[in-house]
Sequence to fold (740 residues):
Amino acid sequence: MLPAVTLDIHSTCGKDAGRFFTVTRSTKPRATLKDVAHEANVSLSTVSYVLNDNEHAQRISHTTKQRVRDAADRLAYKSNPIGRALQRGYTNQVILLIVTWDLATSHSATAMAISRAAIAQGFELTVHVADNDAEAEAFLKRHLLHNVGGLLVLWDSPAMRESYLVQLAAEGVPVVDLLPDSPAGISTVTPDRESAFLEGTRHLIKLGHGCIGLISDTLTRPKTTLCKLAGYRRALQEAGLNYVESLVVDVTEFGFEGGVSGFPRLVQRNPKVTAAICINDAIALGLIAAAGDAGRRCPDDFSVVGFGDSTMGKYWRPALTTFGLLADRVAKASVGLVLQQRQETSPEPKTILIPEELIIRQSTGPAPNS
Amino acid sequence: MLPAVTLDIHSTCGKDAGRFFTVTRSTKPRATLKDVAHEANVSLSTVSYVLNDNEHAQRISHTTKQRVRDAADRLAYKSNPIGRALQRGYTNQVILLIVTWDLATSHSATAMAISRAAIAQGFELTVHVADNDAEAEAFLKRHLLHNVGGLLVLWDSPAMRESYLVQLAAEGVPVVDLLPDSPAGISTVTPDRESAFLEGTRHLIKLGHGCIGLISDTLTRPKTTLCKLAGYRRALQEAGLNYVESLVVDVTEFGFEGGVSGFPRLVQRNPKVTAAICINDAIALGLIAAAGDAGRRCPDDFSVVGFGDSTMGKYWRPALTTFGLLADRVAKASVGLVLQQRQETSPEPKTILIPEELIIRQSTGPAPNS
DNA sequence: CGCAAAAAGTTAAACGTTTCACTAGGACAC
DNA sequence: GTGTCCTAGTGAAACGTTTAACTTTTTGCG
Fold:
């Protein structure tokens, strides 16, 4: 009945494994509506009405209701979601599709928050991690499309999203994209990177810094980085400061090492620079470390702002000033959007920006020569 | 048809939201087996046999098979997992239930790894995060028990696991526990904490340390901590060193601050101590920080070993010597166990221990006075 | 008393699949 | 010509729900 399978578990078996207390499976099948109906001496539909507490349930007498409920209790009846889904034509399952090379980052925290939010709205969250585009494609082609309550997508490649998400949305699946640069017509929930960098740069300006660097991605900047850059430029403009190309340093390595290599390049090109804002925390910490190695203490000689509120940054010394994403709000908003799209027959795509919170710690201070 | 819902999304709406490219839902329902049968001019059952490539499919001529497959392609038929699940009586859904107060740790990494492993075996992973025991209970009572392929559990409370998991297993749900101290009769996959601490303590002894502290949990030690303690004691015993009560320090705060407060207590009670092994990375980093504050540099004056291979520890200076869990192996083993239990009618509980890898970095060095 | 309308349920079809049991038609042997 | 076996399928029940449409009984009212 069940498909055959070959196992391949290479591992040591614990010494107290198999205490010879073997669980024997009870073969007694679970109670169904039919069983309850029989037990309560009513028809199957009556049981369904009572247990779902429908509008139709008002047409059923109180005594019968009680009899049904008692019977259900006696038989420990639990409704079978499969049967229900088949009849109703939809499930309460929301799928989170993650296609990305870097899982270490906040994605998993987002996933957990989404699970919570989904549960709160009566959904259940299925997480599908794909290692590459091909796997994700296979998944979408095969499994999906059927009866799913909604689809949330964390997919690095905009091209791939373009080719699949639009089609899915057209087929009636509520799709919400969690990264910017979404295809037209797809709803998006994403952190407000521009406002964050606006606020972060403002923070540095207010501290007296007049020459502020931006440590960025590789040259082929994704939309996420462009948003951050835009915020940075707006803050400079507001304050009447010039935007200088040389203050934006592109690092090729994405993490800590990127920050380490970025510092000398930034300082060499701009001797007067006293602060920098970085596109993520790891780069920021690398920058602090490299600055320290070069004899410039943070925050006395050099201020640094990160992005992402990593645990690393929290416990680093000096503790990192950074932006925390309100993962709960992202989760709530995206699940909410799915729900909303399920209701409407021709939903209008929405973009919801979730603000990031500036967390001021020790890595930013007054400009040294002020 | 769909349940009504009230939304409550408080957030700024992006300026380029709703580019007035509205996706209109095609109302055309998806093709079913029936449609394919009609298209190919065969009976419904024939289509089922062909598309599943059953043993019965051998009784069907090659030409008919091709006709069916062509028809399915033309209609873009995709099998409906709900219908299938209802008929078969089981799903390929594995549920990961996480009930814990600390989500920041490796749980989410494990979750992602399990998702991967599940997919590789043809399952899909549903993650259910519960904030407390009551929520988890509600979930198990309501949703679960039905048609689920398996249940993986990360639940802090052993008492709760005791009361639910055993019952579930008896009802035929393959249950795998991912924390130690499992109820009797439940299969477990868990890191081999004892061997890790054995190896970690050995590492310190080999470096010449003769007085090694252990920074532990609160006094009501969970099984996880007891395992670690056992490994520590075994290593001491092997080396002919005495086990001294005062070298084991219980900290009340679980994270970084715990390490900070633990250091003075350890040193005060044992002036000769030159190294410590900690039950997690955060405590270890706190310990290093506190040691530095007290004028004892790591690793020259004081060696520290952590547990968990956090990103923090990786980029800390000095980089932390710690243990990395092979999350992929945990995932593979646990999904494998679920599969295995599904096959057997009265499965024997197994305990699989996954080894942890000692990652030697900069926070451990030769004992100072050797 | 007679009729309408409300109250309290019941019947049966439908959702999409799987699979056991059956059959129509032909080939082959005797 | 009859019986047996094989090939290539078909028919129909079953899985557990939901729900539109119907029925039966009771009550209200003139």
Remarks:
- Chain B touches chain A through 100 residues (CB under 8 Å).
- Residues 42-46, 49, 59-61, 64, 83, 85-89 of chain B lie near DNA strand D (CB under 10 Å from a C1').
- Chain B has a mean pLDDT of 87.
